[in-house]
Amino acid sequence: IHSSGDWLIAWDQASEEISFAFPHRWQELHDYGHYINKAFVSRVEKDHVHVIRFDDAVHSFVAPRHDLQLTDVNAFQLVMSKSGSVRFRDPFL
Fold it and tell me: For residue 70, is pLDDT > 90?
């Protein structure tokens, strides 16, 4: 994924499939997609790579945990301050 368009196409397909298997997660997936889309819109195109990296870091952080959702953006602040190799920053900061 190299652009906002790539991300949106992939996200639409993935979130549709995940929602089919886990209907109770539809709202979370919808809201997160909207959040990331707003991040793309608020940045110039050359900075979209930072939004894509942020999304990757969020998924890496949330995936192994059962106490967080993709929409728990306040929980990502701790990770942002402790990140090492990935520059994990909320695209709205």
Answer: yes
CA distances from residue 55 to 60, 71 in whole angstroms, order as listed:
9, 11
Task: With CA atoms as reference, report the closest residue to 61 among 36, 39, 86, 79.
Answer: 79
Statement: residue 85 has pLDDT above 60:
no
- Any residues with CB less than 8 A from the CB of 9 and at least 6 apart, and which? none
Q: Is the whole model's pTM more than 0.85, yes or no? A: no
Tell me the C-alpha distance between 2 and 34, whole Å.
Answer: 18
Mean local confidence (pLDDT), 19-33 = 96
DSSP string, 8-19: HHHHHHHHHHHH
